[in-house]
Amino acid sequence: MTDTLPEIDLSRPEVLRDPLTAYGQARESGPLARLLIPGFGPTYALTRYDGARVMLGDARFELDATSYMRPEVPEDCLPYMRTMSEMNGAEHARLRKLVAPAFTPRRAAEFRPRIAAIVDALLDELPAHAGGGETDLLPHFARPLPMDVICALVGIPEEDRPRWREYGATVAGAAGADFARAIPGIMAGAKAAVAARRDHLDSAGGEVVGDLVRAQDEDGDRLSDIEIVTLVWHLVIAGQTPTNLIANAVAALLSHPDQLAALRADPALMPRAVEELIRWCGPAQLAVPRQARGDVELYGTAVPHGAKVTALISAANRDPRAFDDPDRLDLARVPATGHLGFAHGPHFCLGASIARVQTQVALTALLRRFPRMALAAPAEELQAVDPGTRRLTALPVTL
């Protein structure tokens, strides 16, 4: 077996400026590469669609606490930091099974009117933020929308949601010290939401918090107090993921007038369009690194036990072996295979259905309410320097 692999150094300026190109070049050099990640050590990366998909569903590679860069937090918060994202097997399946019913495609469809009401309320406020006819959709629409939606779905009390917006913005900023300082408040907010629902458990409502409290009351061995609080804060914070998807999608549409015109001409195209936008400009560039549970061979390379392994999601989603003309944005595309924008396998994104419906509703309403909307800056100038997540630093538009 050999170990002569292309290397991608994530500290190099050209990679930071354009990770999509660097990842694509690695994909065409071979199915496996080595990432050099500052502060994280060498990581093996599957570059092509087939290999990435298989690895994400392969039990030989597991997520655990070392898959994440965890901030320093007070000792009393530590029990609540171990989320189901770093669990595997039966432990992960038990917790996921408890919350999965709230995130099915059917429940997402039923929640669409609530999402539409939240979208409309935010759009009503947009003109007030438009100085000189220009506004930034990131802080005034794309960021608050997912947090408001997930708070409503999970069951965060109305009066506490502005505080969760602040928490979400802090976490999204990935600022280490600020994130660490926000953790105690996030934990306290989750505990308060659980306590408030427990006090009014007989009232109407099918929110996630209520479902979890009822599950514990029916069988206390199924769910501990620590697990309920951890599930609540993790679901809420993870639920803001559509922020970057919505922002990226708006920038992509406004930068491709032919595709925008096609979508305006055929609104029924929206569900398919959202899938193509996730493939073409979805936020995930890298999968969360897994650990090899034992010595493994990947494409002739010996991967030792404990080695970190990831997938280049953005490269896989533009793999010409899986998608025709993959670098072209085509909202009418009918792919022969599904994208990996929500990952694959046991850790497939729990909120994928909600994210899909939310993005469909958001884009439909934006295009209807502001038919002359245009970017107020070149799309390429708005990209954040982030090799792990495709995201914007701002989304200035004229209405």
Commentary on this structure:
With 399 residues, this protein is an alpha+beta fold. 48% of the residues lie in helices and 10% in strands. It contains 17 helices and 11 strands. The protein has helices at 13-17, 19-29, 49-56, 89-99, 105-110, 112-125, 137-142, 144-154, 161-172, 176-199, 208-218, 225-238, 242-255, 257-265, 270-281, 313-316, 352-369; strands at 7-9, 32-37, 41-46, 61-62, 134-136, 290-292, 296-298, 301-303, 308-311, 374-375, 396-398. The strands form 3 sheets. Strands 1-2-3-9-6-4 form a 6-stranded mixed β-sheet. Strand 2 (32-37) and strand 3 (41-46) form a beta hairpin. Helix 8 (144-154) crosses helix 9 (161-172), helix 8 (144-154) runs antiparallel to helix 12 (225-238) and helix 13 packs across helix 15 (270-281). The longest helix has 24 residues, at 176-199. It is globular and about 60 Å long. The relative contact order is 0.18. This is Cytochrome P450. Belongs to the cytochrome P450 family. Pfam families: p450.
